[in-house]
Specification:
The chain is α+β, with helices and mostly antiparallel strands. The protein has a domain of 201 residues. The protein has 4 helices and 8 strands. Strands 1, 2, 3, 4, 5, 6, 7 and 8 form an 8-stranded antiparallel β-sheet that branches. The longest helix has 118 residues. The radius of gyration is 63 Å and the shape is rod-shaped.
Length: 327
């Protein structure tokens, strides 16, 4: 009995199992069919879209080529225009810069030349030139420069009769008239106004006066010719107003008497006195000075010991040079 019941139950289970398997196969078949249908539909749609795209592309291609050509030409024209504008701008700018530089250089040169002409005013009148020299001596007196002084004085054409044959007399007369050579160096700061005198020359003391600018434009080259005079006193004469580098009549007479010679009178007169000086444009400082002095002398009743001459004459020539100024 139990066996029959177990067999029936087992059969029922088999039936349900079979039915279940059949439903699964049906669902799978339906799903597969739907998938296949959807795939076919998708393929048809894709094919249709591809065909439509090809048709659109085929119809559009000529327009695209034309557009590309127009675009290339526009780009070429734009590049050419930019290059032209750049070149034009460059060419326009270059001449403008050159013109500016040229103008600036020209203006600077003109200004420099104008300034130089304005600063350097060359004295031209006798009064201006004499004043220039006087001012330079005052500058030296204040600055007390160092310098070198050389003096060379010769006694020429001495006529003394019998006295001229006495060497002692000749030497004594020559010495007290300033004959001989000398050189001295004055250090900076030792200027005393005796060797190089502060000049007080007046315009009417000069016969002529010239002033020229040196080639380098740094110095005035001055030449002053002093008038000739019979009174050469250092206190009252023109020569005495600018230099101490000579002996006047009173000094010569005093020297001869002191040396043992007798003399009644001594008279002197200038035959030629010329001043040459190089004075700096900047500061009125001497670079050099030279004097040339020629004087004739007349001595009366000259005696020495037992020798005697009623008249003795001679000519003094002095060259005085100041160089190596150190301000």
């Amino acid at each position: 009995m139990l066996k029959k019941l177990f067999a029936i139950t087992l059969c029922v289970l088999f039936v349900f199992a079979f039915a279940s398997c059949k439903n699964d196969n049906t669902d799978k078949t339906t799903t597969a069919s739907q998938s296949s249908s959807e795939t076919e539909t998708s393929d048809d749609t894709t094919a249709t879209q591809e065909q439509t795209s090809e048709d659109i592309i085929s119809e559009t291609e000529p327009v695209t080529e034309t557009t590309a050509e127009i675009t290339e030409e526009s780009a070429a024209e734009t590049t050419t225009a930019e290059a032209t504008e750049t070149t034009t701008e460059k060419e326009t700018t270059a001449p403008a810069t050159t013109q500016k530089e040229t103008t600036t250089k020209k203006e600077t040169t003109t200004q420099k030349e104008t300034t130089t002409k304005k600063e350097v005013k060359v004295p031209s009148t006798k009064a201006e030139i004499v004043e220039l020299y006087n001012t330079a001596t005052k500058t030296a007196s204040t600055a007390k420069p160092g310098y070198v002084k050389n003096t060379n004085t010769s006694l020429n054409n001495l006529q003394m009769g019998a006295l001229a044959r006495i060497d002692l007399v000749r030497t004594t007369v020559g010495e007290f008239m300033g004959e001989g050579k000398s050189s001295k160096t004055v250090k900076k700061g030792n200027f005393n106004g005796k060797d190089l005198k502060v000049s007080t020359l007046r315009p009417d003391d000069a016969v002529s006066a010239t002033c020229k600018l040196s080639a380098d434009g740094k110095y005035y080259d001055v030449v002053i010719t002093v008038k000739n005079e019979s009174d050469v006193s250092k206190k009252t004469s023109a020569i005495g107003r600018f230099t101490n580098d000579y002996k006047d009549a009173s000094e010569i007479k005093a020297g001869l008497i002191e040396g043992g010679a007798g003399v009644d009178s001594v008279s002197m007169k200038t035959d030629s006195v010329v001043i040459k000086a190089k004075i700096s444009v900047d500061g009125n400082k001497f670079s050099s000075i030279s004097y040339t002095i020629k004087m004739s002398a007349v001595l009366t009743n000259v005696k020495y010991s037992i020798a005697r001459v009623s008249k003795a004459t001679g000519e003094l020539v002095s060259q005085i040079d100041y160089t190596s100024f150190n301000y």
